[in-house]
Automatic annotation (TrEMBL):
Residues 48-257 form the SET domain. It comes from Anisodus tanguticus. Pfam families: Rubis-subs-bind. It comes from the Eukaryota. The keyword Methyltransferase applies. GO terms for biological process: methylation. InterPro entries: Rubisco_LSMT_subst-bd (IPR015353), Rubisco_LSMT_subst-bd_sf (IPR036464), SET_dom (IPR001214), SET_dom_sf (IPR046341), SETD3_SETD6_MTase (IPR050600). This is SET domain-containing protein. Keywords: Methyltransferase, S-adenosyl-L-methionine, Transferase. GO terms for molecular function: protein-lysine N-methyltransferase activity.
Amino acid sequence: MVIMSCRITFSNTWRPPRSLLARLCCHFSFSTRLEECNEFLPWLEHRAGVEISSLLSIGKSAYGRSLVARHPIKPGDCLFKVPYNVQLAPDNLPRGINALLGDNVGDVAKVALLILYEQKLGKKSEWAPYITRLPRPEDMHSTIFWDDNELEMIQQSSLHQETIMHKLFVEQEYLTIKECHGLDLYAHIDQNLFFYISVTSRAWESSRGVSMIPFADFANHSDLSDTTVLGSEEKQLSEVIADYSYAPGDQVLIRYGKFSNARLLLDFGFTLPCNMYDQVQVELTIPHEDKLRQLKLELLSRYQTPFLKDVNGFSSSENSFALEEVRSADAQGRGIPQSIRAFARVLCSNSPQEINDLAVEAAENDGRLARRPLKDNIREIQAHQFLLSKITELIEEYNASIKSLELPNLCMVGKLDSRRQMAQYLLTGELHVLKSAALWLENYCATLFRV
Ligand SMILES: C[S@@+](CC[C@H](N)C(=O)[O-])C[C@H]1O[C@@H](n2cnc3c(N)ncnc32)[C@H](O)[C@@H]1O
């Protein structure tokens, strides 16, 4: 749901009053008793001064609390409307703190700080009924909280590295806040991470930056649902309109975004057994022993295309490519991304002349490098066979990792077993993507052989 922010630098030396600092120290006292949920919607509606939902209530599901139909619902019905005045965004932070933080930390960290601030106020907080219903640390499974042994299970996936980077990023954000207040506000990094993930797993991007949307955040996710949270600036609210019919008691699932299992696991702490938005990150490098390495690197940097982050937003570079499932194995279909094929064409060039030809072709056309099939069929096949061999290698490595994860028994109990299951879903999803890419490449090469 939420974007990752960029790293920041900070040089403010102003210090807040001590009383403010003291109020920011935290104690954990979250509660998730279900019977308390019945009181939540009336409380929120009273606070908002309007009805939020007449059709849904908060229920229980295999995924924790959920939104459930109270009455028959038909497509087009408004499931709920949550006004902006009962959402938690960075501008809800006390003005003094907000001014102090400025643009030096991202919106997620600001909202996390807001939760911490309100939690510290205890019953005096006007948000107490919401704050006390946030999940407990032990219910959270983002890979940020996985220990080294657990992370080892996903070593094959780029999520492994991404988790380490993300943890460093969050630590940096809190160091900045700490520096800003001149006091160690957070005794343990785990607590900082906990507040941070409470936000990433329950917030939406909004015109106010990032917003926690009470009530909406009891909705669970399905990649198959077309139902999403919509924001209306005009009406100053977030709303969800039904796309399907529901009978009383049915759970209403929404789609948080077109998120891969890697993104779901990092930001929300769960994976889907079969996720249609799965992706795998493939990295290619030009070997140091390649005599044309320098020429190739120069060519690639001269015609570098700007890197666009997709919804999964994982860090990437010019030599890291996100593959999605290739749904049509047919060599004529959309296939694997043009960017990785172009890189392979450059990487497999074996003379300065070939490299120069690619540069001339790019300059004479739209400036994009190696996007057209090589004129020499054999060289085009070789470039794609190279990709196929890389992907086949990865497939073998994924198979070995998945095998090593095979569960000792079918009964899923305990934190480690559920995390092992999540790791399995992550790796099998990424393996599925790799296999579809391999099949497409085989077909593409076979088609060229026949020409
Ligand atoms: C926005 S909250 C949804 C409400 C949450 N179930 C609760 O009890 O508060 C997101 C969290 O719900 C859980 N969740 C949502 N969709 C899920 C799914 N399809 N499978 C497993 N867990 C899911 C995850 O724990 C996730 O971090």
